[in-house]
Amino acid sequence: MSQSQSDGVAEEEVFALRQLSGFWKWLPRVSTVVLTFLSLTYLLNIKIFGDFTFLENQHYYVIVGLMMPLVFVIWPAGSWAARDRVPWYDVVLFLLGVATCAFFAFNAERILNEGWEYSAPGYAVAMSVLLWALVLEAARRAGGWPIAIIVGLASIYPIFAGVMPGPIQGFPSSFDQTAIYHAMSRESIMGIPMRAFAGLVIGFLLFGVALQHTGGGKFFINLAFSMLGHVRGGPAKVAIFSSGFMGSMSGSVITNVLTTGVLSIPAMRRVGFSRTYAGGVEACASTGGVLMPPIMGATAFVMATFLGVPYSEIALAAVVPSVLYFLGLFMQIDSYAARYRLKGLPRDELPSFKRTVKEGWYFIFVFALLIWMLFFLRREAIAPFYAAALLLVINQVLPYQRWGWEDLWNFLSAAAKLFAELTGILAGIGLLVGALSVTGMSGTIANDLIFLAGGSTLVLIFMGAATSFILGIGMTVTAAYIFLAVALAPALIQGGGMNPMAVHLFILYWGMLSYITPPVALGAFAAASIANARPMETGLAAMKLGSVIYFIPFLFVINPALIFQGGWQEVAAVVGQAVLGVILIASAVQGYLVFVGDLNRHGLLQWPIRAALIIAGIAIAIPGGGLIPYSNTQLLLISLASGIPAAVLALLVNRWRPEPAAPG
């Protein structure tokens, strides 16, 4: 669940890793062991060093000092740099990174007691400037140029805040003040992103890597094929479930596509799905997997820290929206397969369900343990460590996927890469948060947005959707989310009186949409490369298939009952309405309605029929009252008045028109 994974860093960034050998090959592995040990002692309050206990800021400096310098070792400075060895300048950067973080860790108590974040000695200012520069370079290597430029410009903003135009003018700081605030305050490099990483993300990263390296991905793919491979449009439905499970492990759109797509896309092509449609299915399924509890992308952990709630509450709130998304995707695929009479794969070519469960039952058991500890014991920080430990023990006891020494080293290397990458990017994102904090722009931006929206909450919501989508294109999802959580969320929560959980999930969902929406659509383009399809056509197919996800965030931000923020009766009613609405919308978009049949038989009539069904779906899914100027009864009448005539007309047309042939 790395940042490249969880946020979809371009493939060229992901694969531009240095091939390490000798000392440099062992250094990340040892760092992973030390990081895990320190995290456990800190979370469990084990006094392994006698009476000495790490201060909170000291713990964060040690973590950054362990992992961020590895970025300079693992990622080359550019395409021109050596990849078979660590050049001298990267050795220097590595040593400077370790020394700088060690300096701040050693002086952690003085930073707190003497208020260094406001006034520090000259040598501490120099070290702050050095840490600032190192973090920017680490963010560039781990996250790419876009995030480095955005974070870099934001980090120097406090120096020029006083001379900026009115709307973006803030309290100015000198260069020295800005540097020490970035390095030593609790609002910048060591702010919310790093606190989320240290408190929650480390354990889940280890658990995700352990699942992948013990064969969890293969198990869930085989399980999906054994259960659904033979049904109508089976391979496409397999892609939904396997990518959903894989997303729970990796938190990655790109990784999901490249892992499950190599199996599901050829299988879809074999039973008759077109290249672009198969790529679109895989892209949408992989995007939904990242939003699927119990393990979501890294952004969800940052969200828990922002809101000050247990991670289990975030995961619980995300259940219904993610199920609705997969339901819409499933309905579209089933409708497409029914419309073109696409069958599944022969049973004798599919994995045995009995054998698959026999050899991989413990993956389900470990997931159950994780969920039990998350939701019932409320042990969010420590739960993934227990789950990972149990998984590794069972894996070594059973003969199916037992590790040798080389497998252990590969596991540690993979974990180190994820830790280093996420540390580099989250430290960089912290600079952005710190800049908004020290200039006072956090509150100012919110007030300006409320003014621009004319006090209208609906306008604010649409502004938030557009901003989240645009920032999701240019930045990693975590970076976009954190910026909007600081700048936009307060406007929606305070000015619009909206539910905080719903607002933050709304921002996350719209930030993810760039994966399946042209012109960027990284997830769709990755799937197109496997399907040998045209990238833009695959992106358009993915956008059509994932159309339901464009509606769902509006549903739960208007009525938070959809994310379990309300009484059980209201929750049941809202969820039931949403399910019916999603089925109607997905069926109309795809052109096939259960019990009615093909909606496309008549060239002209298909469009008013499908439009009427979409209107019916939206009307029944949207909760009435509040921001919506119609009651639930009025919306139900609109839905019935629009949907019933459309369905009856489609039934009549289907009696007159012959069925189309399957696509070539």
Question: Can you summarize this structure?
Answer:
By secondary structure, the protein is mainly alpha-helical. The chain has helices spanning 3-7, 11-15, 23-43, 56-74, 88-106, 108-113, 122-143, 145-160, 175-184, 192-213, 216-228, 234-250, 253-271, 275-290, 298-307, 311-317, 319-340, 353-375, 383-397, 405-438, 441-452, 457-474, 477-487, 489-495, 500-512, 522-531, 535-545, 548-558, 568-590, 606-621, 632-656, and strands at 592-593, 597-598. A two-stranded antiparallel sheet has the order 1-2.
Describe the structure.
With 664 residues, the chain is mainly alpha-helical. The protein folds into three domains: 3-185, no CATH class; 200-402, no CATH class; 567-664, no CATH class. 72% of the residues lie in helices and 1% in strands. The chain contains 31 helices and two strands. Strands 1-2 form a two-stranded antiparallel sheet. Strand 1 (592-593) and strand 2 form a beta hairpin. The longest helix has 34 residues, at 405-438. The protein is globular, with a radius of gyration of 26 Å. The model is unreliable at 1-15 (pLDDT under 50).
SSE diagram, text form:
Elements: H1 3-7, H2 11-15, H3 23-43, H4 56-74, H5 88-106, H6 108-113, H7 122-143, H8 145-160, H9 175-184, H10 192-213, H11 216-228, H12 234-250, H13 253-271, H14 275-290, H15 298-307, H16 311-317, H17 319-340, H18 353-375, H19 383-397, H20 405-438, H21 441-452, H22 457-474, H23 477-487, H24 489-495, H25 500-512, H26 522-531, H27 535-545, H28 548-558, H29 568-590, E1 592-593, E2 597-598, H30 606-621, H31 632-656
Antiparallel strand pairs: 1-2
